[in-house]
Structures are given as structure tokens and as C-alpha cells.
């Protein structure tokens, strides 16, 4: 893997620091939610509905209840009612965030296959698993709808999707007239298989009560989301629920919302009066925490003879659950990437017998850009332009949706750099051959929104008299390296070496920050960690200049620098003292400050997006139908990079995920039974090392003074955007066939 690092830096921020929790993870001492050792721990196993729609007609739990070690068999007949169902809100909002507005085991109605219908608690996992198979449930089955083809004629246009955050219809200009007047139009339909997240750590919670106080260890993207959601469901005050999530073994959006199992674990723990551990099985991961929905997108481009876009119409059709109007926002970024005066975006939904779909890494952007950037490749062919030149011709300095200037850009530079790295000049020549393999080059632009906070982000910083500091905010590290980068941010703001700084997250007892979603954690949490640590540093400097015993007494605080925990006069670095000396002399065990940031003003005259460009080189064997991605080159402009190593890893992982989306990932619904047919890691394909090519990650430096104080735009998802169309376009270059479905499989090639 080749990479170019961003510009070297002086302070801790930006350095390729190794992960602070790396040692704990590789030595197995890191404890995950289903590994918490507790005295009297019991184990719960869920039972899922065997039909996709209908009613439970009878439950016979007698045999299960009699089985060895069984403490309880909970069903809708004895679980009890939840206090209240919280509304669907994204976890970015920082409060309640249920995965769907339906809670199972409240009645006999079945809405989707796999719906939790019973929970068996026993003294060991094996006994609970055994007893779960002894619960006899009968159903009256009704016809179900689970795929687009079954529900096409029932489609409706919702007012809003995505938990109400995205309007169902967006228009500007007159798309109909502009398409009629366009010199060239491209009108295509793209289809996408459903996808499931499949982190290696399945969703899990361990719950225990001490009197009326609940502690939940949860594998989650946001401990606060779990706290607020479980509080609402159980009717328990927030103050009596503590949620801890120090480590999360991958999630990709599947742990962004709070699904049913943490509340069920808490209810079960209350019933049996002992701690309960509830971990979903791999198969249950396909029905217990959402998915990326199957979808169809019809995209119509209108352009003039020079390839300048005059109209873009983008319609999406997808199944949602019986309860919620959810679609991933596939139309957003695809409608903002290029200058285009006339636009129409419409979401249509079909009520289906599945869970509510949910966020899945690059939710919407990845699928929307596949449609747009594949169609753009076709447009380039129609107007006889190099695909790269077509992108540059439609480049914009302003967000076409709001008309506001981008707070920072870099798309042009990313396109040019990526072209250089892949050797794009080769594309002008006829496609090369390598034995039976036909070689193709393809490219696509990449973009991902920059989200700001909806609520104030908070952090706390404390410096001890020994000169070490602890900085805290309730962020969870889902594998991104956020604990590491926040250590760097805290150390830089305090003027301490990173070794003397510890960052702590993953606990609702710590100051509240939003969940780790939407590629926004680094920007939002760094802002508040920086604010808290800077406030503490200012307090310390103020204390020193006001202290007659300090060599800095009487100095202007603005003239004081801190390096390695030592406050010195900038112009006379020999004059100063350590933080530790100041505290010890004043008999202070520690000093502490809090900081907060956001929300930013609603009427900021800018729009923000992280841009990038993706280039792919593929080898295709048209006889065997094989596609091998030989190289991926991505260039990204994510603003300030907090850690060169973790940022690169995020982008590289995103690019490989994009390859996976292009060629491998699909969940197949079996419409006759309404069940997912390949609910296992054996049959749901994800890339292994042998599938991953040489990945070239490059950075374009842009400064953004608008998005947040450190100018961080995020790297969590933009790495994936644009990879699948770059690969599809490369396949077209190699064999001359346009592919408009994901994933692209052998039968699409031969
Ligand atoms: Mo991420 S798909 O925004 O949880």
C-alpha cells in the first residue's frame, strides 16, 4: 500500500501516533460488551419469528421452562409493556435514537421474519441456546411483501425520510423543460441489492441492576443514545441508567441506532434479578439491527453539446418497514456535486415486512454516486469527452442545492492528483491486455457531507499536580482511532506530551457528545476537547501570572507559551515553570475545566462537503466473468488531518469497502418466505486480503475555517464514495459493457 502523508507537523496533532488502545486490543485485555465478567451472570438467547407477517396463535414454553438452568422464558405474554416508544431520531441528535418505532414482544402481531418473539434466560449460554429451541410457537401466516417487485404498485411518496431529516421531494428550476431542451440526455435505471453491516463483534449488551439503578455495557456508536432510548422505553430516569461502551468491534452504522436488545437485556435482568448478557448471533445480525435497503434509482441527465449539465432528475424507489418512512438519502450528494441549474429528486417507498432500514457506512452517498458517476461516464462517451474532463467542466465552487459557496473544496485538485497516481494518460490508448485479462481504467468523483452538532458538545479536562492530565468526553471508538486522536488534540491544547495525557470516552457519566456517526466525530469532538483543554491551559497560565511565587508573575498571559508541560515566556523561554511546580507550590491536587462547542449558527453563509476522487484499474476475464481490481488510487481533501496514520487507515478501509460494494456485498431476500437467504458470513461475501489490491491513499490539503475550530471535515465515509462507479467505469473501459447494478457479479460479465 502506498500513501503520501499530509504535511508534517510540530505538535501532537497530525502525527501518525499508534493507537493508544492498540496494546489492549491485540493482547485481549480490552473488554467488549459481551465479555464483562460479573458475579451471577446469566445468558439470554433470542427467538425469532419464523413467518414474515401474521400473528402468533400460541406459545408453549413449558418444555423450555423445565430445561436445566433456565431462569425465565419471556414472551409477549409475560414481558410486560414498555413505558413509551421514543420517536425515530438519528443518533446524531444526541438523544433518543431507536432503530425503529416498534418494540417487539408487546403483542402477537408479526411484522417481519426474525422479529424477536421470545427471550430465554439461563445460567449458561449453551443452556439458554438449547432451551430457546424448545419454545414452541404457532403462527397464522399472512402474505408478506419484502422486495420491490412485490410492492411496486403500492409505492408512495413520503413527506420526509431518514428520521424526518430529509424531504421526500426536492426541486429547483424546471427539470422537465431543461431535459426537453437538452442536446444530450442519459436516462438509466440502477439497481442495488440490500446490504448488511456484519461487524465482527455482533451487537451485544450486558445489563445489571443495583436496586433501581441500571448499568448497561453496550456495543454501540453512542452511549448517550442507548441511555436515552432505554430510559424512555423502560420509563426509568436518565440518572439511574449508566451506559458503558469502551470498545466496539466494528459497526458501520449497524450500532448507530439503538435496537431492541439493550432494553430487552435490562428487562430480563430485572425479571431474573441477576446480570444478563444478550449477544445477537450472526444470523440475528441480519434481522436485529437494520440494513441498507434494496433500491432502484432512475437517473436522467441532460447536457449541452459540450457536456455541461443542464438538468438532473433522480428518483429512488425502496422498501421500508411497516412502521417508519426510512430510505438512505441517496439523492443528496449526487445532486450537489456538479453545477446544474435544474434538479428534481424524489423518494418513493414501499411498506415491506422488514425491519426499518438504517444507516450503513456512506448511507446514501455510496449508492447515489454509483448512479450519478456511472451515468456521467456514459455522458462523457456521448459527448466524446474524457471522463475526467467532463467532471472538470461541471465543477462548481458553490453548492448547487443552497447556492452557497463551499467552505472549502479541493475536488479539482483531488481529480488531478488521482489521475496522476493511477496513470490516467494511459486511458487515451486502446485498452491493454494481459494474457486473457482485459485491462480497464475508470474514475469517479467522491463526496460526503460535513455534519455539525445539533446539541452542545462537551468535554472535561483535568491536570494533576504530577503534571499528567485526563481529558474526557462520552465518545465511543468504533475502531476509527478517536481515542488516539483526541489524546493528541488534548495534548496539543494543553501543551503536554501525549504520553502525559490520557483520553477517556465510552461512558455516559462523562460529558455528552454526539454518537460516532456521519463521519462527524473527529470534527465535533475535537472541537470540544480542544475547548476544554484550552480552557484548562488558560486557567493554569492565569494562575501562574497571578502568583507572586511564579517566575511568570505579572506577565501578560498572551505572551506565555506551553511546551512539554512548561509555561514559558515566548520571548524569553528561559523564564517559566512547569504546571506541576505551580500546582504543588499552591497545594492544589488538580485543576479542572470544561469546554463546549456548537451548535454552529444555522444561517452560516457556507455549505460544507468533503471532496475526493477515486480511480480504479481493473482486469476482466470476459470468458470466466472474473473481475480483479488491480489498483485503487484515491485523493481526498478532508481538511485538517488529526493523525496521518488513522486517517489513512479510515480512507483505505473505506476504499476497500467500496470495492466490496462494487463486487461482493448482497443480501438476498427469499420473497416466498420473506426471509434473508444468506444470513451468514459464509454466504454474505466481504473482501479478504486476496481481494484487496494495491490501495493508494493521497491527501490534498485544504484549510477550512468554517466547519469547526480545527477545520476537520472527516474521513470516515468519503473513502467509500465513488469507488463502485470507478470500478464499474473501469469494467466498461475494459470490455465495453455498462453495468448498472450492484454488486457486479460473474453473470453480469459473461
Ligand atoms: Mo455511520 S453509516 O454514519 O453510522
Overview features:
750 residues; alpha+beta; 6-stranded mixed β-sheet; 7-stranded mixed β-sheet; Aldehyde Oxidoreductase, domain 4; 26% strand; disordered N terminus; 16 helices
List the helices and strands and how they pair.
Elements: H1 22-26, E1 42-48, E2 54-60, H2 62-66, E3 70-75, E4 109-110, E5 116-122, H3 125-132, E6 136-141, H4 148-151, E7 160-161, E8 166-167, E9 169-172, H5 175-181, E10 184-192, E11 204-210, E12 213-218, H6 223-234, E13 241-244, H7 261-272, E14 276-279, E15 295-303, E16 309-320, E17 342-351, H8 365-382, H9 387-393, H10 411-422, E18 433-434, E19 437-449, E20 457-464, E21 469-472, H11 482-494, E22 501-504, H12 521-545, E23 560-563, E24 566-569, E25 572-578, H13 579-585, E26 590-597, E27 609-621, E28 626-637, H14 644-663, E29 669-670, E30 675-676, E31 694-699, H15 723-735, E32 741-742, H16 746-749
Parallel strand pairs: 1-14, 10-32, 12-13, 16-17, 21-22, 28-31
Antiparallel strand pairs: 1-5, 2-4, 2-6, 3-5, 7-8, 9-17, 10-15, 11-12, 11-14, 15-16, 18-19, 19-27, 20-21, 20-26, 23-24, 24-25, 27-28, 29-30
Helix pairs in contact: 6-7, 8-9, 8-15, 11-12, 14-15
The protein binds dioxothiomolybdenum(VI) ion.
Residues 221, 253, 256, 359-361, 363, 517-518 line the site of dioxothiomolybdenum(VI) ion.
Pfam family, one: MoCoBD_2
InterPro entries: Ald_Oxase/Xan_DH_a/b (IPR000674), Ald_Oxase/Xan_DH_a/b_sf (IPR036856), Ald_Oxase/xanthine_DH-like (IPR016208), AldOxase/xan_DH_MoCoBD1 (IPR008274), AldOxase/xan_DH_MoCoBD2 (IPR046867), AldOxase/xan_DH_Mopterin-bd_sf (IPR037165)
Domain Aldehyde oxidase/xanthine dehydrogenase a/b hammerhead: 27-143
